Amino acid sequence: MAPQDRVSQVSSHLNYPRGLLAGQVAIITGAGQGIGAEAARLFANEGAKVVIADLDANRAESVAKSINDASPGRAISVAGDVQDHEYLKRVVAKAAEFGNGKIHIIVNNAGFTWDGVIHKLTDKQWDTIIAVHATAPFKLVQAAAPYFRVKDGEPRVIINISSTSGIHGNAGQANYAVGKSGMVGLTKTIAKEWGPAFGVRANTIAFGHILTRLTAAKEAGAFITTPEGEKISLGIPQKQLAVKEGDAAEQYTDIPLRRPGSATEAATSILGVVSPLFSYVNGQTIMVTGGRNI
């Protein structure tokens, strides 16, 4: 389908009775909870088939079940570690099988933080976070290349999830900042390599303060267990989150909206950028921050 015809199709079907993503197949990593899970549900509601990729098999299957209970046959779960390149190939193979030989969307969302100041950051912390946030997204896109470098007139979109840490840096997060910054360069390269001949769109979404386990109080006890069995604490120390009693807005004075975003709001932004409503937006870094850092 020619670009002008696609635009005409968009403008003449503003109600999208079958959904914004009808007939499309999406891989979403880190979709067992949080933003990824919300995105998976939204995608399915808009007519997509969704592959729930997550390290936690139980959580992944739970999300897939919740989707299939509402819309049978819309989701499958494929559990594994994104640091395992063979796993990423398996995700692609399962997605292609689920989509009858086609994949339309990749959302590179999986990730976590393992913080430390520069002079104390260990090689393990550095290597793990770079592997999860930079190498894994590249390897997944590379494995899916045969399904994106095609000329069938159907939309193909890749979304790489970044963070304000990757745009502005953040004390204690050198590893995370480098990994998330790398997503921006990967996105622009995909747009330049696969856009001209195949019409693939690639965009980065950089989140600010979104309410997830990564931004909750560390004292709440959230953690991720690596494949080697190491438990990594997640969240922000309570003393950094402390606010005046009875005046929570004091915590968010650097956010014009004076509040953090919800996982659903974050996921909705992903849906918007993936959708045909953003059909001429390509190679961009879209800040979803409530106005922080403007």
From TrEMBL:
<comment type="similarity">
    <text>Belongs to the short-chain dehydrogenases/reductases (SDR) family.</text>
</comment>
<dbReference type="GO" id="GO:0006633">
    <property type="term" value="P:fatty acid biosynthetic process"/>
</dbReference>
<feature type="domain" description="Ketoreductase">
    <location>
        <begin position="24"/>
        <end position="197"/>
    </location>
</feature>
<dbReference type="GO" id="GO:0016616">
    <property type="term" value="F:oxidoreductase activity, acting on the CH-OH group of donors, NAD or NADP as acceptor"/>
</dbReference>
<dbReference type="GO" id="GO:0048038">
    <property type="term" value="F:quinone binding"/>
</dbReference>
<keyword id="KW-0560">Oxidoreductase</keyword>
<protein>
    <recommendedName>
        <fullName>Ketoreductase domain-containing protein</fullName>
    </recommendedName>
</protein>
<keyword id="KW-0521">NADP</keyword>
<dbReference type="Pfam" id="PF00106">
    <property type="entry name" value="adh_short"/>
</dbReference>
<dbReference type="InterPro" id="IPR020904">
    <property type="entry name" value="Sc_DH/Rdtase_CS"/>
</dbReference>
<dbReference type="InterPro" id="IPR002347">
    <property type="entry name" value="SDR_fam"/>
</dbReference>
<dbReference type="InterPro" id="IPR036291">
    <property type="entry name" value="NAD(P)-bd_dom_sf"/>
</dbReference>
<dbReference type="InterPro" id="IPR057326">
    <property type="entry name" value="KR_dom"/>
</dbReference>
